[in-house]
Amino acid sequence: MLKTRDFTKIVIVASETDEAKAAADRLSERFGNADPKDADAIVALGGDGHMLQTLHRFIDREIPIYGMNCGSVGFLMNEYSEEALPDLLAKAEISVIHPLRMVARDRHGETFNALAINEVSLFRQRYQAAKLRITVDGKMRMEELVCDGALIATPAGSTAYNLSAHGPILPINASLLALTPISPFRPRRWRGAILPNDASITIDVLEAQKRPVSAVADHTEIRDVITVRIEEESSANLYLMFDPGHALDERIISEQFRY
Predict the structure, then answer these.
(1) Cα distance between residue 243 and residue 259, in whole Å
(2) 160: part of which helix (H) or strand (E)?
(3) Sheet harboring 213-217: ordered strands across?
(4) By the 8 A CB rule, do 58 and 79 touch?
(5) Average pLDDT score, the chain
(6) Please, which residues bridge with residue 251 across strands?
(7) Helix, strand and coil percent figures for the chain, each rounded to 5
(8) CATH no., domain 100-232
(9) SS3 (DSSP) at 17
(10) What does the pLDDT average to over 133-156?
(11) Peptide bond into 196 cis (omega under 30)
(12) Could you tell me the residue ranges of all domains in the chain?
């Protein structure tokens, strides 16, 4: 459980852009830059990509993370403001999210583990379409999906690549996962499935040598996989901080009314 904090000890981490680095220097001078071991909060300066990297970097620590937008995409970020930063942190609303765990086995018999905050994706590696078999909680649900790939997204990741692949947007507090095909060829009209967050999803690669597939958990890619199991890592808690009225659940609802 997240302990009560007074937000006097802040860690400031910036992306590689000049704008973010300059902002980090100014904020560090005004508010200090604490050791992560003693921190009450982390302030991430950049865009959504940097926020994702920061979440992975501190995934084993229950430290709330407050993002301020210094990048091109800021769905997970708050507006940039240097004034009264401790007050902004104290008033922030916190959303708790859980990552996915991917366990992938390749054609050589090696097994790999990785965590994904947004999604686990499978992609064809060559010009031929992938052939995938989908099993949920031990029951085979789709014998053969011919496609460019498929992904399983968390509610936090449902507005990222999943949305671009025409997957559903999930409310942040929904106990759900989105299973979305990428350019499905057969069955042509299958749009995917919404699954409970405690589901165990196994995707087997058919004709793996002829039609190789890679599996990607956020930034971690495994090539030539033959089977991938995806489950929510419910024991891992990640805390995202948002200004009042702009919490992640509100942003996800608003995104569905864009046109």
Answers:
(1) 25
(2) none
(3) 193-196, 176-182, 149-153, 119-124, 213-217, 220-222
(4) no
(5) 91
(6) none
(7) 20, 40, 45
(8) 2.60.200.30
(9) coil
(10) 97
(11) no
(12) 10-97+237-255, 100-232
Give the tokens for residue 59.
């995934």
For residues 25 and 172, what is the distance between their CA atoms, to the nearest angstrom?
Answer: 33
The model's pTM? 0.87
Q: Hey, what are 141's tokens?
A: 């649900």
Q: Which of 104-108, 113-117, 185-189, 205-209 has the lowest mean pLDDT?
A: 185-189
CB 67 within 8 A of CB 76: yes
| Position 207, amino acid | E
Angle formed at CA 8 by CA 243 and CA 55, multiple of 5 degrees: 55
Query: Left if phi > 0, otherwise alpha if psi is -120 to 50, otherwise beta: which for 53?
Result: alpha
CA gyration radius, the chain: 20
Q: Which of 133-137, 163-167, 225-229, 254-258 has the lowest mean pLDDT?
A: 254-258
Q: Are 123 and 150 in contact (CB under 8 A)?
A: no
Active site members: 48
Judged against a pLDDT cut of 80, whether residue 72 lies above it is answered with: no
Residue 117 makes CB contacts below 8 A (sequence gap 6+) with 52, 55, 56, 59, 97, 99, 100, 154, 156, 157, 218, 238
Alpha carbon of residue 14 to chain centroid: 19
- The first and second tokens of residue 92, run together, are 């922030």
CATH level 3 topology of 10-97+237-255: Rossmann fold (3.40.50)
pLDDT for the residue numbered 62: 86
Query: Are 213 and 125 spatial neighbours (Cβ–Cβ below 8 Å)?
Result: yes
10-97+237-255 and 100-232, same CATH topology: no
Give ∠ CA 140-141-144 in degrees, rounded to 5.
90
Q: Which two tokens stand for residue 19?
A: 């704008």
Q: What is the DSSP letter of 86?
A: H
